[in-house]
Design a protein that fits this description.
The complex is a heterodimer.
Chain A: H1 10-18, H2 24-38, H3 49-69, H4 76-98, H5 106-112, H6 122-148, H7 158-173, H8 177-192, H9 197-203, H10 211-221, H11 226-248
Helix pairs in contact in A: 2-3, 3-4, 3-6, 3-7, 4-6, 5-11, 6-10, 6-11
Chain B: H1 14-26, E1 33-40, H2 46-59, E2 63-68, H3 79-91, H4 97-112, H5 119-135, E3 140-145, H6 152-162, E4 170-177, H7 178-182, H8 186-194, E5 200-204, H9 210-221, H10 227-237, H11 241-252, H12 262-272, H13 275-286, H14 293-300, H15 304-316, E6 320-323, E7 326-329, H16 332-338, H17 344-360, H18 366-376, H19 380-396, H20 400-414, H21 424-437, H22 441-455, H23 461-473, H24 477-489, H25 495-511, H26 515-530, H27 536-552, H28 556-573, H29 576-591, H30 597-613, H31 617-635, H32 638-649, H33 655-672, H34 675-689, H35 697-710, H36 714-727, H37 733-753, H38 760-778, H39 782-801, H40 807-820, H41 823-839, H42 844-861, H43 864-877, H44 886-890, H45 908-918, H46 923-930, H47 934-948, H48 953-963
Parallel strand pairs in B: 1-4, 1-5, 2-3, 3-4
Antiparallel strand pairs in B: 6-7
Helix pairs in contact in B: 1-2, 3-4, 4-5, 9-11, 10-11, 12-16, 13-15, 14-17, 17-18, 18-19, 19-20, 20-21, 21-22, 22-23, 23-24, 23-25, 24-25, 25-26, 25-27, 26-27, 27-28, 27-29, 28-29, 29-30, 29-31, 30-31, 31-32, 31-33, 32-33, 33-34, 33-35, 34-35, 35-36, 35-37, 36-37, 37-38, 37-39, 38-39, 39-40, 40-41, ...
The chains are: A mainly alpha, B mainly alpha.
Chain lengths: ~260, ~950
């Protein structure tokens, strides 16, 4: 038999993923347990790139939870549903990876592949996870949440306000991601002068702001059309994967 | 039809089949529902499993209905159910005439359905009645394939039936493509919510493992595979049974080399087809499955014999399957391979032939299919009338989501230069209204903008009112308010329209909490309505807004008088909906802000009778009875409340009405301590809410917490409250205060029972929220504040329980609830006040009196868990609860319990002490529990040791445990 995907913590992770957290406290609980497992994953253990992301995500989700308890959001119903739906996509990606499914989003698999090494620096690793999660997962999570709450992504609504508030939390928790980071990314991309440059100009600068929201609006409009929806999914996955691979390349270390 | 499609054995799924069978039939209690959702990637064998399991359930005596959802995004509402019924009817033999007439009756019901208010809910009810007749007492199983393409109406029907609202023993088995769930599919949320229920299973169908792969391949080939061939099959199939089968078949038939991909396999087969068979395969690929034989014949224009021969060849090459109702491609994966194999001109030619054939002879999904084919044939002018007809057809069945899509398609077609002479304004109007009905608010507004642009000039009053209505529905109140004002200012505004706008504006302002403004607008509306004939609806609406605003502004009598007058007006004018509405508002006003419960209940019940006479039983009677139930619960007439709720549920309500009643019934069950019934209702509510909406989540979680506490599962209660805290809007202070009380009570109970550790973070958060609620309610209207104050009093008192319960705080909670005339929380507070007094060993006589009062009320209500808590406390404190028993109790005769020999020597009190010793409590803790001093406990313990002839607590405990009953 081939070695299980998650090595010695395979059973633990599979058991954990069998559960589907349904509220924000449960999501935080899930991420906490996951963190404990990921740092035991050889060969990288403490420096597992997924653990780098997971740790950051846990910090952010805990902040969101505190914000919910502290009445920081206008529409907590929307926000907590979004948070749960958002996290579910991360857990889904892990589940697909566990099954070695070809359906694993490429945006995620480029990070998962690196769990066996070579080692990547923690900051680019975390950023690669954030990239997959925001640029790929978030728009779909937004659409599902709106659909469920029988509401819609409308600019300037309470939900939009709360959504931007989450972005602030992300920005707070990612050291220098918004400013210094992006300048360096810009430099990096100038150096590469590659074909994702146009996309970068169009979307990445707004990274922590509104891209996912705009993409969600785009998907929202074609959500009843399976082909168009699938097309959008592939586009987002490809873009996010390209950036993820870049972050995890030796060039990504440059960000640290 | 000759085909070896199903001859390959089902490998590696035996356990799954067993699990699903028992989940759907064996383990389902009589009258209950169950569901299994199978998810898995394409080719993993979902359809095959559905067939297999269906056949076995049929053998076990279940009535099985099978349908599939369609991937033409514009199918008609409830298509899979209609298809299932038709198939079932076709399979019935002559001896089953009665069943057949029931099926046809139900199908006829769909044909006769007309659009109308609450049509959707009534339709659900009629469907379940129809299914009931068809089932004739047998368990009913509904099997649905390709659920990822389910239409909204079917989705709602499933949730309705699974929630038990249809009063039907039903199991649902459905297959969902896993790929579809990855994007933003609505089913994602539905499944997340449902998978937590006990009666629902979501099973992921994994590919086969290596051994399974080899077994299946060997079965197809007819012998064990050579090692390298087996390895290749494993590598290339990834364990996907569909691919394994095809690869193995190639291997068996000795085709050279093993194809690399599925695509190659099927393209090679298509190439090998004879010419006519080739045409058959492509024609079916362009059609809407199943493609009927007659239709295929017309599309291909082949003589019968040649067609049959061609179809046979396609089946033999494993590209097609044939069934009684028509032809299908063998698998979705085949369709994907074929999708790009035709030239555009060939494809549109096929669609044209389909459209022409269908025009001549109506068939299933007639209009939707017609529109689909004409559009793809590049004939917008001919597609347009079909799209319009399909939209009207969908509206007839209350499928506004589908109707909206048909109207949108029609608009697109009408935009084509090839379709002149279309009334765009009318199309836009219909599309906007359908979008509004199915909750696509932004789209509805955008369509309205377009409508205004097409009309040109200044938008008129009617348009402003319409826009305001859509905005209000979208929750964009500020903009809605402006639109109503524009409507009122519009030059072309008739007095009737003006009254309408003012009345709706008043209602909107009321929801925004601007009571004075609401009152002003309401008066304006009433004045306007007085001058216009036939504006009773506006009178009722405005009166209600005025009534509530006066109540909040603390002039209840004025508001009440207006509401009563509105009821008179409605009765005189005689439109049933107006009468019903007036009753509803009046009852809500009385039982809500005014807290005149008894009268409110009387009005609600009288109203319910009246509207039933007027023929509005299903909708309005149900709502009025829900109000009566909640009022009766609060004033403590639980037995009566139970009767009323049962009467209301007889109408099989759906949606929010159903949720309201189920929650009301659950509240009673929690009070009674009927855990099973309460759980069932909570699951039913969760099922309905899985379809969308969030308004009722907090009451649901509050009840869940209350129930968990009676079960001693304080951590479960804590989780429910935490979820509620993170999902409640902070401006909803009333339901939030009830939730916070449950949270604090859970912590206090955990502390008292020592079963679960108190969570200090949770306590801190709950106290923060309680403070925030107090701050916010300070500025709220008095009726709101009054309810909140009751819960806040409970909160403060519960907090004190964590640290030496304060009898004064409990006394003020008693006073709050007595003042509001809510006996249940008052009795609970009395129990706690007594407990606090006893713990301090002060004012024992007062405590005894409180306990007796609480006991009397709790017994009167039938509140079993509360009663037993009171009894338990009274027992520990040796307080007699019945005046008559007082004398007996004084003599120390404990309620007789069979006593085993070893403990016979102990007195009743000593046995109580010993039981607590065995629980591991210290003397100090036992003293606190029994309200006597630690020293006295020490004396009891030494007597116990003497009598039992033991020297340690452990030995004494062992004897206690040995002699415990059971």
């Amino acid at each position: 038999m081939t070695e299980p995907v998650w090595g010695p913590v395979h059973r633990d992770i599979v058991d954990l993923l069998a559960d589907h957290p349904a509220d924000v406290p449960a999501v935080v609980d899930h991420l906490t347990k996951l963190q404990d497992m990921l740092v035991r994953l050889p060969p990288l253990e403490e420096s597992c790139p997924l653990a780098d992301f997971n740790k950051l995500y846990l910090t952010i989700t805990s902040s969101v939870l505190d914000g919910l308890y502290d009445d920081r959001f206008v529409d907590p119903v929307f926000l907590s549903r979004l948070d749960v739906e958002f996290a579910a996509r991360y857990f889904d990606a892990m589940r697909l990876w566990t099954d070695s499914s070809p359906g694993t989003p490429k945006a995620w698999s480029c990070l998962f592949e690196r769990m066996r090494g070579p080692d990547a620096r923690p900051l680019p690793s975390a950023a690669a996870g954030v990239n997959a999660h925001i640029n790929f997962d978030l728009p779909f999570a937004l659409v599902t949440t709106f659909d469920h709450l029988e509401s819609e992504p409308v600019d300037g609504s309470d939900q939009h306000h709360d959504y931007l508030e989450i972005n602030n939390i992300f920005a707070d928790k990612i050291p220098g991601l918004r400013r210094g980071y992006l300048e360096r990314w810009q430099l990096l991309i100038d150096m590469l002068n590659g074909d994702i440059d146009d996309w970068y100009q169009g979307e990445l600068v707004e990274y922590t702001r509104d891209v996912a929201w705009r993409n969600a609006q785009k998907i929202w409009r074609c959500r009843h059309d399976p082909d168009a929806r699938e097309c959008e999914r592939t586009r987002l996955d490809d873009n996010a994967a390209a950036l993820g691979r870049l972050l995890l390349s030796p060039l990504g270390a440059f960000l640290q | 039809m000759a085909s070896d499609v199903d001859t390959a054995p089902l490998v590696g799924r035996a356990e799954l089949v067993q699990t699903v069978r028992s989940a759907l039939l064996g383990d389902v209690a009589h009258g209950q529902t169950a569901a299994v959702f199978l998810t898995g990637e394409s080719g993993v064998g979902k359809t095959r499993l559905l067939g297999e399991i269906g056949a076995r359930l049929r053998d076990q005596g279940a009535l099985v209905l099978t349908g599939s959802c369609l991937d033409i995004g514009d199918a008609s509402p409830l298509h899979p159910l209609l298809q299932a019924l038709r198939r079932f009817d076709a399979d019935l033999s002559a001896s089953q005439a009665r069943t057949s007439s029931a099926v046809r009756g139900l199908l006829q019901m769909f044909a006769d359905e007309t659009a109308g208010p609450d049509g959707a809910g009534a339709l659900l009810e009629r469907v379940s009645r129809g299914l009931h007749l068809i089932a004739e007492g047998r368990p009913l199983v509904l099997i649905l394939d390709d659920l990822q393409w389910v239409d909204r109406s079917t989705r709602q029907l499933l949730l309705y039936l699974l929630a038990g609202l249809g009063d039907l023993q039903l199991s649902v088995l459905a297959a969902v493509r896993a790929e579809s769930l990855q994007g933003a599919h609505p089913l994602r949320r539905v499944l997340t919510e449902l998978r937590r229920l006990r009666t629902v299973r979501v099973l992921d169908l994994a590919p086969l493992d290596r051994a399974g792969t080899e077994r299946l391949a060997a079965a197809v080939v007819g012998r064990e595979l050579a090692a390298d061939a087996a390895e290749q099959v494993w590598q290339r199939s990834g364990g996907n049974p569909f691919v394994i089968e095809e690869l193995a078949r190639d291997l068996r038939d000795g085709r050279d080399g093993l194809s690399e991909t599925l695509r190659e396999i099927f393209l090679a087969r298509v190439d090998a087809l004879p010419q006519h068979a080739h045409a058959v395969v492509h024609a079916v690929a362009a059609g809407v499955e199943p493609v009927e034989h007659w239709l295929l014949a017309q599309v291909l224009r082949l003589p019968e014999e040649e067609l049959i021969e061609a179809a046979r060849a396609a089946v033999a090459h494993r590209l097609l399957v044939g069934a009684d109702d028509g032809y299908r491609l063998r698998h979705r994966l085949v369709a994907e391979v074929l999708a790009h194999e035709l030239l555009p001109a060939e494809r549109s030619g096929l669609h044209r032939r389909y459209a022409e054939a269908l025009t001549a002879a109506p068939a299933e999904l007639h209009q939707a299919r017609l529109a689909h084919h004409w559009r793809l044939a590049g004939e917008p002018a001919r597609a347009l009338p079909a799209a319009v007809a399909a939209a009207q057809e969908a509206e007839r069945l209350h499928g506004y989501a589908e109707a909206h899509r048909h109207w949108s398609a029609a608009l697109q077609l009408a935009g084509d230069p090839g379709t002149p002479g279309v009334d765009r304004v009318e199309l836009l109007g219909h599309a906007a209204e359908a979008a509004h009905h199915c909750g696509e608010h932004a789209r509805a507004l955008a369509l309205l903008e377009e409508l205004a642009a097409v009309q040109g000039g200044e938008p008129g009053c009617a348009l402003h009112i319409r826009r305001a209505r859509y905005l209000a529905a979208a929750g964009r109140s500020a903009l809605a308010e402006k639109e109503y004002q524009r409507a009122l200012e519009a030059a072309d505004c008739s007095p009737g329209e003006r009254a309408t706008a003012a009345a709706h504006l008043a209602e909107l302002l009321l929801h925004l909490g601007r009571y004075a403004d609401a009152g002003r607008r309401a008066r304006e509306a009433l004045a306007l309505a007085a001058t216009v004939e036939g504006s009773t609806t506006e009178v009722v609406l405005a009166s209600s807004a005025l009534g509530f605003s006066e109540a909040y502004l603390e002039d209840p009598d004025a508001g009440l008088a207006v509401m009563r007058q509105a009821l008179d007006t409605a009765e005189r004018a005689g439109r049933p909906e107006d009468v019903a509405c007036a009753y509803l508002h009046l009852a809500e006003l009385l039982t809500g802000p005014l807290n005149i419960l008894e009268e409110g209940v009387v009005v609600a019940r009288r109203g319910a009778e009246r509207v039933a006479e007027l023929g509005l039983g299903r909708t309005w009677e149900t709502r009025l009875l829900a109000i009566a139930t909640n009022g009766l619960f609060r004033v403590g007439q639980w037995a009566e409340a139970e009767k009323v709720v049962a009467a209301a549920l007889r109408h099989r309500p759906s949606g929010a009405d159903a949720v309201e009643l189920l929650l009301a019934r659950c509240r009673l069950s929690v009070g009674y301590g009927d855990i099973e019934a309460a759980d069932r209702d909570l699951d039913a509510v969760a099922t309905v809410l899985a379809g969308g909406g969030a308004r009722h989540v907090i009451p649901l979680l509050t009840l869940r917490a209350g129930l968990a506490m009676w079960e001693g599962r304080h951590d479960v209660a804590r989780q429910a409250v935490q979820r509620g805290l993170t999902e409640s809007r902070s401006d909803d202070v009333t339901i939030l205060s009830a939730l916070v009380w449950h949270g604090l009570r859970a912590e206090a109970e955990a502390h008292a029972s020592r079963t679960v550790a108190v969570d200090p973070t949770a306590v801190r958060r709950l106290r923060d929220v309680a403070e925030r609620v107090a701050r916010k309610s300070a500025s709220a209207a008095r009726p709101v504040r009054s309810v909140v104050d009751g819960f806040l009093a409970l909160c403060a008192a519960e907090v004190s329980r964590l640290d030496g319960s304060d009898p004064e705080l409990w006394a003020s909670s008693v006073a709050e609830w007595d003042r509001r005339n809510h006996p249940y929380p008052a009795a609970y507070s009395r129990l706690r006040q007594a407990e606090a007094l006893l713990a301090r060993r002060s004012r024992v006589a007062t405590a005894a009196k409180l306990l007796r009062e609480a006991y009397r009320v709790a017994q009167g209500l039938g509140a079993v868990p509360l009663t037993s808590e009171i009894r338990e406390l009274a027992g520990r404190a040796r307080v007699s609860l019945e005046e008559r028993e007082a004398a007996d109790r004084a003599r120390g005769a404990a309620p007789a319990e069979p006593v085993d020999d070893e403990l016979a020597a102990l007195t009743a009190r000593e046995r109580e002490v010993l039981a607590l010793v065995a629980e591991g409590l210290t003397n100090k803790e036992i003293g606190q529990r029994l309200f006597i001093s630690e020293r006295t406990i020490g004396v009891h313990v030494s007597h116990i040791f003497d009598k039992l002839q033991v020297r340690t607590r452990v030995q004494a405990s062992a004897i206690q445990l040995r002699n415990r009953r059971g």
